[in-house]
Each structure stands twice: as structure tokens, then as C-alpha cells.
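User: Hey, my collaborator sent me this sequence without any context and asked if I could get a structure. I don't really work with proteins. Can you help?
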Amino acid sequence: MVTEIPELKPRDFAMFRDLAYQKFGLDLRQGKERLVSSRLSKHIRAGGFSSFDEYFRHVSGDSTGEALIAMIDSLTTNHTSFLREQQHFQFLTETVLPAYLDRPKMDIWCAASSTGEEPYSILLSLCNELGARRAPDVRIQASDISTRVLAVARKGVYSAERVAALPPDWLRRFFLRGEGRSQGLYRVKPDLAAKVEFRRVNLMDPFPGSVAYQVIFCRNVMIYFDQKTQEDVVNRLAACLEPGGYLFVGHAESLTGIRHELQYVKPAVYQKPVSGAPIKRRAI
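Assistant: No problem. I've predicted the 3D structure and written it out in C-alpha cell form, which is a compact way to encode the shape of the chain:
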């Protein structure tokens, strides 16, 4: 049993930095040594490893890939909440949705779903605005790199504290309230939860499927990437949008400085030009 965490040597940090960048695009710059040591220490303790080098060899040699996923899960932050950055949901219902009211279906990709609050916020916002209308039928593809957070998201069960940001009438209309041993818990109603499909996706890998989405949310992910990776991810996301579709990024993020085809709409909102429309290329 390891009682003291071994020292993270410069060579160790370089190995983890290169592995994280190669597999996930995570940009661990110099100065992140303390963070890496602290975040990975729990795996050192749990696995009884005598050094970071031994733990690295374990991660690299794990054929299941689960150790690698656990490592990256520790190095990133899965902070999320319902209706986070609420301006986006207002823009979605007031500006984006009206353009698709005559469509039978609306396909949305939430590309960093974490524990599910974001894709459910998208769904509930649209359902609230649509009311009794049956069209468009909203379907959400929600993805994340972490199997741990996806397991939580698939359950669709949240504490009263987690749903406190939602309007009270949404809790009555869209959730089942727990009783007995489940007192204080809220579960997304099954008919609504069925509209969200969760799957594991690494944004560094080829994207699955061939759906042209009307909306893609990829918020608070770009902050982990360097400029080259940001440009690659943004352009591959743009290729998944249908003409006129929207990409939402986090308010702390910007596409300024990278080359892409999307048009700036407002802070953290970009649109794919429709056919024949002039393309304003923005450089970050």
C-alpha cells in the first residue's frame, strides 16, 4: 500500500503531457505539474503504484482503455449545471427554433454532455417553448469522453440542489419526484429521456454517424485545446452542421484566431452559411 505520493519528475510530466495530447488533444502546458500530480495521486494510491512511471506504464498497457479514460477524466473538469449560460437557451428558443417549426424533426448534438444537465436543458427549453406542438420532434445526440459521467447522465436522476435552477413548473411537467428512499431526487420523465441518446465520443477521433445537425453545442471544451486542435475540432464540427445550422461554444471561449467557415452571430454563437451566402472567414 502506497502511503506517500511519489514525486512527479519532469520526465513523468512530459510522458503524461504527450499522452494526453496525442489521445485527447488536452494541452497540458508547463506549470501544470502540480495539477497533474494532485489529480493523478488518487490513482497512484488506489492502484498501489510506487511511481508515476509505473502508473504510466499501467495506463499505456491497459488494453481495455478504461485506465486511460479514468486518467483523462481526472485531468479535466466535468463542471456543469442546468441552464448554465442561460442566454444560449434563450437564443435557441427565440431565434433558432422558429426557423425549424415547419420541419418534422430537429437534430441536435451536445458534444460535451458531462452528467447530462446540458442536453436535458436543451431538450426542456425546446419542449417548454413548443408546448403542445408535436413538430419538430427534437432528438439530441449527447456525447462525452468520460464513461463515468455518461453513466450518471443516462440515469437522468438529480438531487433537488441540482435542479434548483429550473423553473418550478418544469419540475412538475418534466420530472418525476422521488418518494420514500428516493425522497429529494428528481428523474427526467422517461418519454423525454428517450429523446436523448448518450454515447462516448472522443473529439479527437472521427465523428460517428452522418447526421447533419441543425444545432451543435460544444461548450467549455475548447479551453483544453491548443490552437491547432481547436481549429481541427471546430472545422470538423462545422462539417456536421447543415447550412444555416448553429454552433454554440462557451462564453469563456472564442473562435477568434482560427480559420473556419462559420459566421459570427453573437458572443459564443456561430452559424454555418447557407448555400450561396458569402462566407466570412474569421482568424483566431
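In plain terms: The radius of gyration is 21 Å. You can pass these C-alpha cells on to your collaborator as they are.
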